[in-house]
Amino acid sequence: xxxxxxxxxxxxxxxxxxxxGHTAAVGQGSCSYCHKTNLITQHxxxxxxxxxxxxxxxxxxxxxxxxxxxxxxxxxxYSCSNCHGSASHTEKHPGYIANWSTMNGxxxxxxxxxxxxxxxxxxxPATLQSQLCLKCHSSNGFGAAAGGVSxxxxxxxxxxxxxxxxxxxxxxxxxxxIVSLNNQTGSLAPRALxxxxxxxxxxxxxxxVMSCSDCxxxxxxxxxxxxxxxxxxxxxxxNKAWPYTVAGVSSxxxxxTSNNSMSFCWNCHNFTAAGAPHTEGDHNGVACxxxxxxxxxxxxxxxxxxxxxxGLPAYQKPDxxxxxxxxxxxFKKASSPNNYSESNCSTNCGEHGAISGxxxx
Length: 361
What we know:
8 strands; 18% helix; globular
């Protein structure tokens, strides 16, 4: 085996000039947003052995490489479509999700609250579904992005955001996709919600980690969702509407504390145990999105709260474009969902006064 390995290394060394064509074979068109490096590097991160797709024959691997180089094919330019056809990642997501545990992933390194992680550790194979998704849906895929918003426009016409930033364990709040809530280091106590606030199977509060496919339907074909699902954001479950009262729309009537039976949130959360702010009479008819962020992956403020301050990203405002009513101006996390009072938040709607020592975006 050692002799064969030495022979292969020698052949590859001799072939370096001829294989230069591979170096130039980066992604073309929209592929180039993420696939910025050479063909060999791009394919080195997957569990499957892909070189043999082209460099193969009935002879030994070393002879196959030699034959390919001798015929001159190793120096040719190749585009993504030469091997992958016209199929996009949108169409391939069902296969990714069905086989995620057989593929390699990345684990984001530590970063300050609401900051892009810039280091990623390979995980071979992935042990969390998010490790596969974050290979592309983070700076690992599209590089540095101001505020975590990339320049890549997805199938829905929205720009892709850095989900390693959104689920960052250093954030004040986040759904438990990278770590459990008890390990969300940036979260203030109490980190987890009471068990009564959640539905099965989320009864082991604070200790469970979610998968991306718990909320997103990544296994169907269609035209609306980012992964090909038939609903906006590929939402799944009995309820698919957020933040509007109708599922799958990009504008309309916002859900409120008194009109939310269709809300996507109630697939996992119990509205009746959501706490005093949701049932307070003065809040009757207030839009959910006027207090909470639009993309509830995670946030800079506890309990996925939005504040009408300069740091709130445009995509986290009610309409996703920088407009809409954001009523809270500062927020303090209470010791339990039923211990909130006017001293826990200041607002711009005339109901609450100023507070000190609070969190803001």
